[in-house]
Amino acid sequence: MKKEFWLERWERAEIGFHQNEINPYLRRFWQDMPRAHGGEVFVPLCGKSLDMVWLRQQGCAVLGVELSEIAVRDFFSEQGMSPERVSGGKFDNYIAPGFCLACGDFFDLRKQDMAQVSMVYDRASLVALPPEMRESYARHLTEILPTGTQILLVTFDYPQAQMDGPPFAVSVDEVEALYGKYAEVRLLVQEDVLAQNPRFQQRGVSRMQENVFLVTMR
Hints:
The chain is of the alpha/beta class. It has a single domain, classed as Vaccinia Virus protein VP39 (Rossmann fold, 3-Layer(aba) Sandwich), CATH 3.40.50. Helix content is 27%, strand content 27%. It has a 9-stranded mixed β-sheet with strand order 3-4-5-2-1-6-7-9-8, sandwiched between helices.
């Protein structure tokens, strides 16, 4: 999947993946995360997610990375903020109190960019990637995160043959295979969510689960 795919989705405002409410799993599990109070939380492929606003309200500094400048600008505009734009290296950083959104390619991030991160919130990043990219994504993420960092990860699982992603199906076994070499992987909850997602039923999906994990870097 090329970068142009996502850039074009934002240009055409085809952003069905954007949620207009705070993710319920984030509300449900965040406060129980041992390292979730204060500190810096990283949100990969962040778009203009409202979850970032909620995380800031919990006292966290938010570091996001996003390919689309449209998404970054929309986030700050819709939140009534006027960020400072700081260009450096391969990223244009949009900075406002409590927020730094780096506009650029996730794979260009380095360890020094993650030095202050203690938590990662991944609701829409891993599931946005096709199978051939997920191993590279997980490997790069684990290489740049500090030891002890915790990832709150939300995935979908459904019969992949019934629908083309994104979002792509990511099974419990695949999450363990992707992260188990580098981290402790704990399944927090597994819920049947097909009834709450009629658009996926309309596309022919017969089963859909959401799985929530806590991944703790060794």
